[in-house]
Amino acid sequence: MQSTARYKMSQSLSTISRTNIIRLILVCTFLVTTAYLFLKNNKERRVISFGLYGTNPKYTVGAVRNVQIAKYIYPDWVCRFYVDLTVPPEIIDALKKEGAQIIVVESDIKGKIAGMFWRFLVADDRSVDRYIVRDTDSRLSLRESTAVNEWIKSGENFHIMKDHPYHGSHKILGGLWGGTKNGIGASLAKFTNEWKNRDTYLDDMELLQNKVWPLIEHSHISHDSYFCESDPRARPFPLKRMGDEHVGQVFDEFDKPRESDCKPLRETASPMRCRARPDWERG
Fold first, then answer.
1. Collapsing DSSP states into helix, strand and coil, what is residue 172?
2. Is the domain of 32 the same as that of 159?
3. SS3 for 276?
4. Could you tell me which residues belong to the region Disordered (predicted)?
5. Which pLDDT tens digit goes with each residue over 142-192?
6. Dihedral through CA 7, CA 12, CA 16, CA 19, nearest 10?
7. The model's pTM
8. Number of domains in the chain
9. Domain that holds residue 144
10. Does 202 share its domain with 130?
11. I need a surface site. Which of 79, 196, 205, 273 has the fewest CB within 10 A?
């Protein structure tokens, strides 16, 4: 019995060890790639763009957390927040202290989600060479940054990510895309102004679907763990999913993930074409 127990323990430790070694190799590869891309493209001005308004700590605290995380996984990027005067001063101070850029948008919000469109204005900034658009109630992650590095190496102008069974509703998700300078060839400020009074959740993605997607359809790559078969330019995520994590995952101010998003992820396997390796059941 003792011999059998020792064998099972040894087998278990061996499995854990192999998993840790694979994870370590992937992390080291990411760090080397990041260093290479930084040295190669250190003249690029890169911005992570967020929109922030109101006092809800889910978003305000989340904003600060993302700046802190970005220092480690996006070391050559700057976090930028498009805000209005409804954001508490202490949050603005905390963001500045962490090194974030603050752009105050002087706008009377008439639509309930008008602030969601401000983050798209980074696409009009000709001083920015490359940008990604993200949500403050999500968290930047190693899984997404490895995908972003693949995008940079690809030479394509735009990047799209989808990483959950619920991510198939639109061609572009509001907080999971990015682009390069002059890539769109149209004014996001103009589009945003046309949609500024929208009140419906997901209207920011309706703008992207109707106005932006037709302009970038043939000049993007996407990383997609569930809907890659509907996009010939899609590829799997290069880093294996850990647990219930997913790019764009929603968290509260205590870094607790939204449980209602985790259940469908656990129950839905990724199509084989959407996996970097066949045994990565959920991509």
1. coil
2. no
3. coil
4. 258-283
5. 999 999 999 999 999 999 999 999 998 899 999 999 999 977 866 777 777
6. 100
7. 0.83
8. 2
9. 44-274
10. yes
11. 273
